[in-house]
């Protein structure tokens, strides 16, 4: 009989299950081959290291020898870190939503030996509770059904797999034409789409901020998209109204428990409708995406003290709180739980004993196992001396565990966010370190592979990894010119675009999220809707729009021609997904960001002798998706400057048409 095979894993999530009596195996072809040989179903359990309820189910069920005996004798057990295998997670999440009507982690899926699911749900308790069966009852039912009603199982797996394979984009795409110029109908639909998304968001704004009730997740991509829409509208009234929506949501998040005003960073979400009590894990992707959105909003509302505080603290949390043994590269996140005297306690590090805050003139809210969460309903930042006092009090407590995996996409998100939040040095260092860490390049400069994360041989890079890395390279190109730390940035951009197209391109503006099908299902995931992060294909469109604008600004005619093709492909992606986005406007934050970036040009501004304050004012005027190219890093001013020698100058180009250089 096989034993638990997780001990050699590089995933903290898998290592946490290495001592379970369940005979877990990591994701790969081996478990499915064993299931075929034994003619048994496969239990695919998906989660991640910082997930609170994953820990709960592990302690309640996966550590139970009686439960393990059922699993080991009647099925093959596979543990999946969703952060290492987002394609696997995406496929089984679609099945879970279809079969149970809900999604989340831990995700519990039962499949045939080909990996095709026939039963899927999330957390199961150790005993029947609130209408849900116990996990043991589920295991017994699955085993009986597999033995006695195989025809039913086979029929369900086939139908569900076909539904997932043909879902998503099919039937909604529009081919923009082989010349790269979309039809007039598609162009009009694409141009009108952002306003419909904004109208949907305005209509669905919740009284307590955000766009829905509990649980309250931070709508990062939507907030950034709303800021970009406000930047491009001709109506000053509409602009202010939309920025006010962003302001109400950010104020609600920053005054409640979602943010950590002591050590910086944001928690995953709030469990209530008033942003009071968070689910305490801190993830790299959430913090990077929120930093990006808040930095864009701060450009237009620089007097918002809470936002300014959050931007500074989140930048510090990313670079310091998530530092790893790899210089400049960042960890995946911090656990929701803290181990106190051998027991996991959710949020212990971040919560306070009753009266502890009041003694310092602060208020606490909520009830987390008898402790409270710091709240700032007065909307005021913490004074530095008070923050130091709170940090000192926290320093005596045990700390949550760190998930030290280096995920390519999330590090690239952080590089983009740090650059856009006013720290291009940190963004540049992270981008070049990530390129060296995640990308394998042949001697001739050809990109051979991109990895998803450290030490994961069965987890190649996804479209999300390549799209975000491309966007990080574009921001590096913008801020540091053609060469940085020995990296030929334009060549890296060009090679990464080629590799991404060869690996993930499907047809007519549509792209796969994964390089290969999931197990033996034959399905290559492609999800055009936002989830925990913006849909990867929208991020790719944004990156291609910006890369195309940069390339067309250069002297080399061949490079300009390549840049025009990149911009055309960005437009094809946007046109191909107008129907998809129109049907699901509430999940279109990532598309709103990409659409607004592309429809804005993106605007390109070449500057000479400009100080940071002048560049910030320029971004406020031109929009946060604009590209600001310093002459000091190789950009060129065209024409005759309309200013005196030594003055700060700017030349603005829109859609390839450039104005005269003028004084800033």
UniProtKB/TrEMBL annotation:
Residue ranges of every copy of the Spermatogenesis-associated protein 20-like TRX domain listed in the record: 4-163
The GO biological-process annotations, alphabetized, read as: carbohydrate metabolic process
Which stretches does the entry tag as region Disordered? 163-183
Q: Which domain of life is it from?
A: Bacteria
Under PANTHER family, the record lists: SPERMATOGENESIS-ASSOCIATED PROTEIN 20
Name this polypeptide is given? DUF255 domain-containing protein
> Which species does the entry assign this protein to?
Corynebacterium kalidii
